[in-house]
Write the structure tokens for this entry.
Amino acid sequence: MKVDVLLGLQWGDEGKGKVVDVLTPKYDVVARFQGGPNAGHTLEFHGEKYILRSIPSGIFQGGKVNVIGNGVVLDPLLFRQEAEALAASGHDLTKQLFISKKAHLILPTHRVLDMAYEASKGAGKIGTTGKGIGPAYTDKVSRNGLRVGDLLHNFEERYVAAKAKHEAILAALNYTYDITELEKEWLAALDYLKRFKLIDSEHVINRFLKEEKSVLAEGAQGTMLDIDFGSYPFVTSSNTICAGCCTGLGVSPRNIGEVFGIFKAYCTRVGSGPFPTELFDETGEQICQLGHEFGSVTGRKRRCGWIDLVALKYAIMINGVSQLIMMKSDVLDTFESIKACVSYRIDGEEVTEFPYEIGESIEPVYVELPGWNTNMTKMQSEDEFPEEFNAYLTFLEEELGVPIKIVSVGPDREQTIIRYTED
Ligand code: GDP
Ligand code: IMO
Ligand code: MG
């Protein structure tokens, strides 16, 4: 079997958690391959709402194996809080959740460094989630990191050394902080982490594939936040793209199957950085309110704008997307007309290829399509789609060159429409 990958094509928060939950019944295993508690993946079903940060979104679908892969950065304390909250609601994960020994740990001082670096950037700050993601990946790449597997050997000594390095940087930055309480809780959480199966996940995943078990890899963030191809430097610190699944799980590129690319019917971004189709008017505010566009964990207001097909085509190309999934279509239910950016005008020239920089000189060129003015939230099948909505889908499929196989019309698991397939 091959690993199917589901990943975000925009700036994150596309609705990955919801769709992973919906697709999980078709899989034996769900695995996260990058990112960490900067993610906030929302799932809604049976009138309950759950937000997952480090734990894969397959855990609610009856006894499936869930894996936190080597490409993830894990904060033991936030992980403990997340897992304990789930246990309190009747979901004991200790038997169904495996954690890679090669996943890197986020230390309390990584969180402080994240804040200190942001403070030192002033107006140029990235608007990180403040969870220590950048500093933890920095230590990984500079070969100073601590890994989950280190918990099993000589941990204390390594921890003290890593912390001392961080303290020296923070002193040089003149940054004052107090982590006494945080550190106590963090250290206590290490023992909690040991209750889970700490595994060599690359072997386990490849064994699953040999045994013909199906694996779904769950991306975090989105392609436009990728460290290499996103709107650098306003990005996260991992490869959010399909290739990140190979390095983050130890899966060969030859073993990648379907690539599900997920996008909103419009576009959002949280944090700083360029966003060519951002709306600063009434329409942007309307999308924000109708879509409840506030961070699932931080509560930060998400910036809203029209769909950007230049950026989407780029994301489809980089990831080799084979199927598209369109989310939050219902948010546009009341709009008279809908715009889609088909090219950028830069210094008077029309550009259709996503450029090196997407600064302020970009003027989006829009196509305007009629809205459907219909409440789609209770629809069960594509037979019920209004004509204008079908026209919007056809337009997008023609522009993007990839079929839209799933349409989401609300946050609940049930509000998901699988379209007829021709293959
Ligand atoms: P993720 O990070 O990609 O998993 O996405 P988030 O959970 O951060 O953000 C998506 C938000 O949209 C969550 O609040 C979901 O409950 C919600 N959502 C997902 N799909 C739909 C949809 O089709 N319609 C509406 N109205 N909300 C949706
Ligand atoms: P999910 O998985 C949306 C953004 C932050 C910031 C930048 C860098 O829920 O889609 P970081 O803390 O990673 O160093 O922040 O990336 N960001 C996200 N935006 N959804 C996410 O995850 C994000 N994770 C990070 O807002 O701009
Ligand atoms: Mg999110």
